Amino acid sequence: MSLPLAGIKILDFTTLLPGPYATQILADMGAEVLRVESPTRADLVKFMPPYIGNGMDRVSAAHATLNRNKQSIAIDLKKEGAQEIIHKLLPKYDIVIEQFRPGVMKRLGLDFATLKETQPNLIYCSITGYGQTGPLKDRAGHDINYLALSGLASFSGREETGPVLSGAQIADVAGGSHNAVMAILAAIIQRTTTNQGQYLDISMSDAAMALTTMAGANALTSGEDPDYGTDMLNGGLFYNYYKTSDDRYISVGSLEPNFALALLSLLELEEWKSKIGDQSPAMQKQISEAISEKVGAQPLTHWQAEFAKIDACVEPVLTMNEAFKHPHFIERGMVTRAIGNNNSEIKQINTALPFKRQEAHKAGGKLGADTLSIMQSLGYSDEQISVLKENRCI
């Protein structure tokens, strides 16, 4: 059975995480992605250890994952001849995705307004921190800044610590990557009826604000700001992480009464059952302390065995390598394999979408791995390619 995006062709001008992860998802679903990379300003992800392979074939594990199932061509977009190469490529590709600051692609003559003149069905997606409009559109930023400015960080933490860092890039992935994928897929569907492309302005800070959903809705209605440790999801209830006797943790999400009662029964905290509905901070703190004392008396393995017997929304906090080996994720196919440049097999995290490849993925390779073959397919002679190399255009 063919993958759902077979036949879709994407020209990818992105770097780091948001854009490359978006095109990884699209490539995993069958889209043909050609990544345009600078030969002089390498993507920083390439230098993040640990590494896979040796010598010229060595790439970082993160890069090998983010760029799987893609081709790579090295072009310095500022050099003479670069625009000609891109314009020869464009008729073969119907989607462009880029991640430069606003105005960069226009200065290069590769903005949507210019390209749609000759390719009206082009779908063009720009991913930036603050979007293409507004007073902050030209400002630099990273995930932590988008979470801060959007208000999300203002209630994601504890009273004693303030905002806390996440181990994953929330705005980058949920905003830059996932929103870009959704917007591109929606634009593809619309194009089937209109035969017209469109411009997609993806802002990671917009996406971070959109993620506040319930807390944001409540704040807009009441005029009151959520605070640290006051909401049911940020420590206001006994919904929390609890440390075991061996310094591991379990997650307790027993919000509904039936789950809460099952939790308290297993922990032999019968005296708290009648008070579980009291959501006052003082009572919830007492319940949390009682749970904490019980959980802290036994190691993680004890609680794993006990809570496996009941359904109470309680699970262990696993390390990454423990999660990779968990029978559930193994059966779900979340650990997949990819073939590297030297034909070695590499383990990678799979896409969470249901369109799983039966064969192994192709791991992301070295910078410009497909430059020569692509240039030849565009009709460039060996002599022309040599001149472009001498000029450091490719």
Automatic annotation (TrEMBL):
Alphabetized SUPFAM superfamilies for the sequence: CoA-transferase family III (CaiB/BaiF)
Pfam families assigned to the protein according to its UniProt record, in alphabetical order: CoA_transf_3 (PF02515)
Tree of life domain: Bacteria
GO molecular function terms noted in the UniProt entry: catalytic activity
Record's protein name: Similar to alpha-methylacyl-CoA racemase
